[in-house]
Amino acid sequence: MIHEVDEALRALLAGSGLEASGVEVVFDAPTREWAARRNAPTVCVFLYHIQEDPTRRGSGAGEVHDADGHVVARRSPARWFELTYLVTAWASRPQDEHRLLSQVLGTLVHTDVLPAPLLTGSLADLGLTVSLDTAGAGLDAPSASDVWSALGGELKASLGVRVRAPLAGVERPAGPPVTEGLVVRTAGPVPGGEPAPGRRLRYAEVGDPGPEGFAGPRERPPAPARRRRGRRQP
Q1: How far apart are CA 42 and CA 30, in angstroms?
Q2: Hey, what domains does the chain have and what are their CATH numbers?
Q3: Among 77, 86, 100, 151, whose CB has the most other CB atoms within 10 angstroms?
Q4: Which segments of 109-209 does DSSP mark as H helices, in order?
Q5: Which stretches of 75-205 are DSSP H helices?
Q6: What is the per-residue burial (b if ≥16 Cβ within 10 Å, else e) of 66-93?
């Protein structure tokens, strides 16, 4: 799921004109060593925090059907995770970095959900909404200064981007559908010592009261009319 979110973000930023301008979109950690090797305008989208959203955890299991409509598996509900990215722009001059960062901000801040055509793999199969929050307040994640300290670099202008994405549940195969019905045999001793042959009952469709189908509920016959008891004439 994480790599599918990465690819959706890459496609979103590339489609905003960055790719046509020769700007690279990477997901590397912006360490001091990485910055020293950089030699082209770059937008870095660094994933640094993953946390589950327990308020969206479901229960039960859903059914997975085949082309004929039969249940072939049962799948536990998807679990939702928040992926927090640190987005930075890298160029030879601060003015160019700010221009790139402004272009990225204009693209992400007007995107509340990742477009469905950009979703691949399990995200596309689930068909659920993948939301996007850019530079929002109250991000429950380490601060940017803590991230830069951990990376060993100097504090740099950046955007905090949070993506809420579902992780597909575990799929467990189900038993095959019943097609042969039940076999009914009489109990007790049988003359000759041989067991009585069983009678196989099939599942009858609605409106198919065949001789071998399951019998419907029997209708009770009408109760006989009661005779009124009168006094005998003397």
Answers
A1: 11
A2: 2-56+79-165 (3.30.2000)
A3: 86
A4: 121-126, 144-151
A5: 94-108, 121-126, 144-151
A6: eeeeeebebeebbbbbbbbbbbbbbbee
Q: HSE on the CB side for 110, CA within 13 Å?
A: 9
Rounded to whole angstroms, how far apart are CA atoms 101 and 93? 13
pLDDT in tens, the chain (234 residues): 999 999 999 999 998 888 888 899 999 999 999 999 988 999 999 999 999 988 887 766 666 667 777 677 777 788 999 999 999 999 999 999 999 999 999 999 999 999 999 999 999 988 999 999 998 765 566 788 889 889 888 888 999 999 999 998 777 777 666 666 666 666 655 566 565 555 555 555 545 554 444 444 445 556 555 555 555 555
| Residue carrying structure tokens 């979703």 | 119
